[in-house]
Amino acid sequence: MGLSASGLVSGLDINNLVTQLVEAERAPKQGRITKQLNDIETDISAYGRLKDALDKMKDVMSKFRDDHTFAARSSASDDSEAVSVSAEPDAMTGSYSVDVQQLAQSQKLVSSAFTEGMDFGAGSMTLQLGSESLSITIGDTENSLSDIANLINKHESNPGIAAAVIKDDDGERLILGSEKTGASNTISLSVDSSVSGELNNLAYVPGSVSNLNEVQQAKDARIVVDGLATITSSNNTFSDAIPGVKIEAKELSAGSPVNISVSEDKAAVKKVMEEFVDSYNAFFQITQSVAKYDPESQTGGALVGDSLIRSMTGQLRTVFSSPIEGAPESMKTLSEFGVTTTREGRLEIDGDIMDKHLDQNFSKLGEFFDGNNGFAKALEKTIDRFTSYTGSIKNRENSLNDQKDRIQDDQAALDMRMQALEERTRRQFSAMESAMGQMQYQMSAMMSMMPAMGNQ
Q: What is the per-residue pLDDT across 330-389, written as a single tens digit (0 to 9) for each?
């Protein structure tokens, strides 16, 4: 507030009068500007919702541009507690029998009983597990069976040998166990030849007489596929028996082979189609809400009468109904694949038709969706015409933002005019107050002179 008129002379609430006069001048112009800005923001929001819905539709359909969608495999086992199965994309499809004849296991050695706390003497020993080894040095002290077990367990180069000491009625026993399964992961223990004393009693060479006895043999897992192919594995997982298929043996078959199967993952394709239908119906719902007109209330959505809405829905329906070059004769269009349009304009899936084509034409779905003239490519191209940086929606948004900038300039100009009007009005009231004050002063002076003039 640059100027102020007190109203002390006139008795008027000048500040309130100025505010009311300025607001009366501002109100109709401000109302038009506010409505225009609100309408533009509503339109921009509506176009944004349409673009987001189209982008979602495109993202869903892009899954059909991914080779893994049609290469995906589903797998099943008649007895998953005995044999589990999983399949990688492009795995060989088919049904197989798996007879689990042997499960993989690790080796375990147990020593003879030694006197509890016995001193085994100083020296060195080397333990080997398969092709890996570790060497430990036992000192003059801390050379009991428990000390030796601790040296093995804590060694940084331990290849996977677990040592423990148990006590029974006969004394202490050393247990050595492999943490790795498989026939090749056997344990051997050699002692420095210069060592004399009890340490030599811990040496173990497979197949020789020793104070260490094998209580559990290292074994490979073994399965027979389709009664013909015998395959072994150091663990219970078989990754090469069937190309792209991983089989895990969990229990012995006991003469009753487990049937497993690998097939195209038809459910994955159907799921993507359901997502696509949902995404289109969400887009369609938005078009209805932003373009709908209610004749009773004479109100409508933000984009009532917008030709772009008709253009978008029309071009999308053209893609839906256009034949796909290279597709099977019985599956040339989206509706023939089992995606049909309702009377209201939404999409829905006919599960029976779709399942039939998934069973009969799965190998040709790649061409239907991702061929040179495939449905996914055609849809993507159509959507891009609306959502790309140079697309129709972006052009509309740019035009609206230009209008918004011009209206915001009008707002700034209105604010400046109203500020000037307020200052001008305050000056006028200030001048009026000053003039009234001067008149009151003159009147007071004249009134004070009148008695003196009457006495002359």
A: 889 999 999 999 999 999 999 999 999 999 888 888 888 888 888 999 999 999 999 998
Say which CATH topology domain 108-216 has: Immunoglobulin-like (2.60.40)
Residue 9 confidence (pLDDT) above 80:
no
Which amino acid, one-letter code, is at 379?
A: L
Neighbour order of strands in the sheet with 132-138: 132-138, 123-129, 187-191
Q: What does the longest C-alpha to C-alpha distance in the chain come to? A: 160
pTM over 0.85: no
| Signed CA dihedral, 317, 340, 333, 280: sign only | positive
Q: Which amino acid is located at 15 in the chain?
A: N
Residues 277 and 339: beta-carbon distance below 8 Å: yes
Parallel, antiparallel, or unpaired for β 339-341 and 299-300? unpaired
DSSP codes joined into one string, 189-205: EEE-TT--SGGGGG-B-
User: What fold does the segment set 1-72+265-434 form as a domain?
Assistant: f41 fragment of flagellin, N-terminal domain (1.20.1330)
